[in-house]
Each structure stands twice: as C-alpha cells, then as structure tokens.
Amino acid sequence: MDVWDRRKKFLVATDSIIVGREDTFQELKGKLTNSNSACKMICVVGEAGVGKTTICKKIYTDMRKEFTSAALVYVSNEPRVQDLLLEIAKQVGLEKEKRNEDLEVNLCSLLNENRCLIFLDDIWTTEAWDDLKNVIPMNSRNGSRIIITSRRTDVGRYIGGENSLNELKLLDKEKSWELFFKLMKSSSENTNEIFPSIELEDIAKMIVERCGGLPLAIVVAVGMLRQRRRNKHAWNEVLKILSTSTENNCSKILSLSYKDLPPDLRPFFLYFGLFPEDEEISVSDLTKAWIAEKLIRDDGNQNPDDIAAAKLEMLSDRNLIQVSMRNFDGSVKRCRIHDLLLVLCIETAKENNFFCTRHDIHSNSFSTLRRLTIDNTSQYSISNSKTPKLRTLFYFSNLEEEWSLIPNEIGNLSSLTYLKLSGKFERMPSTIRNLKKLVTLDASQALFDIFPRTIFRMKNLKHLLCFLDYRFEYNTSTILNVRDEVYLPNIETLYWVPGTILKASSLQKLSNLRELGLYEINDQLIDVISGKTPILEKLQHLHLNTPELKRLNLSHYDHLAKLSLVLSRDFQCTLDTIEFPPNLIYLNLQDMIFTEDPMKILKELPSLEILSLFYCTYSNSIALDFSGANSFPELQVLEFDGTEIPELIVDQTGMPKLCKFVCYQKHLNVPDRLREIMVEP
C-alpha cells in the first residue's frame, strides 16, 4: 500500500477549497509579485469562515520559495507577543544565541537585511498590530512582503491603509455549488456516484443554499453528508433540520455536524476546546491525555497511537479539524480547529458539563467537574476549589507576564490523571507528590524557577515531559537539587532529564521505558546504555542531547526504531564509534561536525526509512555519497536543514525506495533525481 495515500486524500480536500476564489487568488498574488507595484502588503478581511486563512496560506505557500526566509504565525484574539516573535525568529532562521540576547533587535535586523515573506494570520485588534509592527519589515528595500488577515475591516485599514485592504465576500450561488460539488467529488472515484438520482442533487442544492455562501459551512456540510447514505431520506433529514432551526445558517450546520457524530467520537471532538484559540495541537499530547482519562484503553491489544490516529482521521474526514502537519507516513502529527468550531466545542462542553474554562466556572459545577482549562488571569483559584472528580487540568500562563504561582492546594486534586502546564511559573509545589493517580505530567512548555525532586519519585506516573530549550538560561540540573535516586517504576515516556539527575543505577530500573530524552550525559550513563545486554528492553525512541559523544553501542536494542543525536558544534564527530540499533527506522543527526562522509556508515543500515540531518557541518570539502546498489535499501525520506550542504552524489541504484527529498536550503545544486522528488518543507 502506498504510504502517501492518506496524505494525497487530505491534500485534495484542502486545495479544492480555493474553488470559487481563483480570480481573487490571482489578483491578491499579483499585488505581491508585481515588482513595479508599490504594494508591500495585503490585508485580507472578512467574516469568520469566509476563507481568509485558506486563500492567504495558498499564496504564502506558492510564494515562499522566492524569498530568503519566510514565517507564518497565528495571532488570535489573545496574542502572546513574545511567543509570536520567537516563532517568527525560529522560522526565519535566527540563531538561538541571538534569540536569547535581544530578540526584538536581532529579529528586526535579520528581517530588514533579507528578503522576507511574513504571514500574520487573524489579527483582531489594532493593539496587537502595534505590538508587532516595529519588528515587521514594513519599509524594507529588499522586496519583503507582508500578508495580514483580520475579521475587522477597521483593523485591516489601520494596519495597511486603503491600498492594501481586500475584502473577501461570501460565495455566490454558482460558486457555492461548485465548491460543494468538487469537495464531494474528491471522496468518490466515480462522479456519477455523488448523486445517484436527480432528487438527491436537488436536495444537495437546497442544503448548499442554507450554507449562505460561507465556505466553512459548505466544507462542514460536505463532511457530514459523506458519512450518510446516498439516499433521499438520509439527506432530507439534514435539510429538514437546517430549514427549521432558528439559529443562523453557519451555527445550524456546525451544531448539526456535532449531533451527527457517533456518540463515542463526540468526546474526542470536544477535547479540542480545552486548547487555546489557534493553537497547533500535538497529536502526541492528545493521545497521552486520552489515555490518561481512559478515553483510549491501553490494554495491549491495539496500539493507543493507532486508535488516536483513527479518531483524528474520522474528525478530519468530517472536516471538523484542520490537519496542519502530517508525519512522513501520512498520519496526523499536528492539527488545529477553526475558531467557530472551537466556540461550538466550548459551548457544547459547557452544556454537557464535559469541561469548564475560566470564562464559565461556577461553584455549583465543582462537584461534578472532570476537566478544566484555566490561565493565570483567571479569577478561579485551585485553592478554593472542591473538585473531587477533576481528572484533567490545563494550566496556561503567559511568558510575557510575571512568574505565576501554582498553589500548594493543587496536591488536593486527588482524582487528577492528566496535568499540562504552559508558561512561566515560580515553582512546582512539592505537594505534587500527593497526586497518586497522576498518569501524565506535561511541563515541556513550562519554565520553572524551582522544580521539586519529588516529581521523580511518583510511582504511578507514566509520562513525564520536562522543559528543554536553550533560548533561556535555564539549567535543570542545578535547580532540581536531587539527592534521592529517580524512582519511576511505571514510567513509559521521560523527556528531558539531565544525566546529573538520572544516575545509571536508576536508569536500569526503568524497565517500562519506551521513550527517553537525556542531556548533559556522562560517560557512566553511556557505558550502562552501551552494555552487552540492553538495560531498557522496551525502548523505542531515544533522544540524546550532549556536548560530545565519543562512543555509543545500541546494537542490542532490537525495538529501538527512532534515534535522535544532538551534539555540540564544537565537537568533531565520526560515526565509526557508534553502533546503531539493527531495526532503526528514523535517524536524526543535529549540530554535528563531520570530517569524513557519514554515509559510509549510514548507507549500511538495513531498515532505515527516514534520515534527517539538521545544522550539520562538513569539513574538508567532503561529499555525501548516496550511490551504490546496496546503499540505503529502505530509505524513503531524505531531509536536510541548516548550514551549507556539500556535494550530493546520487545514482540510479542507491536509495531504490526514495520518494521524498526535503531541503530547507536555497540555491542548492540538487542532482536531477532528487529534484524530481523535492517537496516544500
């Protein structure tokens, strides 16, 4: 089976939403591409769901190759400016050191020195623009271009004036039907199968009419009809509900799309309401939360990741979520939910007491509350709560604000199984040890001034994700001050832990560990990991971030499929001292200095399917040789990013299964065979 089938299906549905907007698309793109044009910015405005993001994202995707660097960020209703600037800085390639020193000055300098394409999606207020405009290259002489979307015409006019303003209107009757028809056709091999009878086509046209020309409503209606039988009775049910409801057209369709979900799929959809607006949501985060809450059962019969993937594909097929990134095999990696559907999630969750947000917390709901999402601006206080059934807590803080406090009373949430923290906090209370039922603690996006050592002795914890990001001067090993050994007998996922904390004697006891991320690794740990007998027999993913790596033997780890090695750029590396696992599928090498061709070693890996090399340096003018009849027998994806890439030697016999070449470098002399399969990163 073609591993790209799922991805192709997704891309067809996404591209077809441009239907009815072709002229607008060409006009907007022309304004930005015309070198004689004074226009350096377009501001596209229009109501929610009209297709602003879709059309502008296609413009962005089509044009980004023409620029030195490009960035796309979602601003939203409650923007975190510092986070947005950091995200722009990452996307345009600002070095980590410069992101740490003086972010705004260094980013502004880089953007003004280069020809950049910047897409700021969904700006709600003039204040948000005022916070960003000093960094954005408005008057660049290098041909930079800016794309803005907003729901408010006055905001668009404030940002760029009348010349940049472009209003996206509702589709007319003809274009609405064209969009509906092409979306339906994308799910059917035979066009005649779409409407087996004239009566069915007439019903479809009446449903489209109820959508009022709003593309989002049409897309969701198509997703709903795809799940029903192609007969008059089934489609008439949809039409009848749309015709009798007193809600506005879009609300009717969105509400009906939820009611049309199978009961067992509804909680998975509602779960998206726990995340902030315009958040790119990690499938890994979702899966861990669903397992912790027992929405997905990890009973050993079926892989929980496969179950989660199936649920997400069902929601994607119904057009209720937007897939923003897919893995190389086509499965969903990151996803988002449209603002209007997010509102539906929150309102429906409130009606069903599925979860609460900071906007609708009332004391009478505490006794039955199971899920809660709050931030540090909320009036809600954990210390005053009486939530005996609370199982999931999302706690968001703003990196731009003062250090937030997590109250000691968090330890009283005796039923809590999943805790996600994001932002900047003074400390993690030591009372966290009282959460005996806690399965997942995700602090991967949280900065702590103090982090308790008791976290490493929570016996029932299965997933612990700690913070690691070099943009802050933050050293976990000195802050934790751990004296006792790590004791996590049930742990399956552990990121990121310094070698100064995780002693070799403790590591040997983590018998259930499947994913491990380590940094500041010492020789003793390497020796234990490299022993003749694997100390972690169930290990599947290993990530090592260390200044140097003189030796490593993973040849006995039969289940280890994914390996990531990140070294210091000051350390010259040779792969001769590394013995790779026999069934390795994915390999990421980052920040390495190679004095000889690493492909001499890597081309022999029998099962390797994905190879990524990021920010590596190649001295002595070496070439990377991928040629040879027995080279990379299973490799399907080759990916480069970072520093200058040397000569690539490719023939027709090496890499016989290669189907995708991803390269972030501009002006690279790519061999013809790779250019034929080169795709946008």
Automatic annotation (TrEMBL):
Database matches in InterPro entries: Apaf_helical (IPR042197), Disease_R_plants (IPR044974), LRR_dom_sf (IPR032675), LRR_R13L4/SHOC2-like (IPR055414), NB-ARC (IPR002182), P-loop_NTPase (IPR027417), WH-like_DNA-bd_sf (IPR036388), WHD_DRP (IPR058922)
Domain Disease resistance protein winged helix: 274-342
PANTHER family xrefs: DISEASE RESISTANCE PROTEIN RP (PTHR23155), TOMV SUSCEPTIBLE PROTEIN TM-2 (PTHR23155:SF1238)
NB-ARC domain span: 22-183
GO biological process, one term: defense response to other organism
GO molecular function, one term: ADP binding
Superkingdom as given in the UniProt entry: Eukaryota
Keywords: ATP-binding, Leucine-rich repeat, Nucleotide-binding, Plant defense, Repeat
Naturally occurring in which organism (per UniProt): Olea europaea subsp. europaea
Name the UniProt record assigns to this protein: Disease resistance RPP13-like
Keyword set includes Repeat: yes
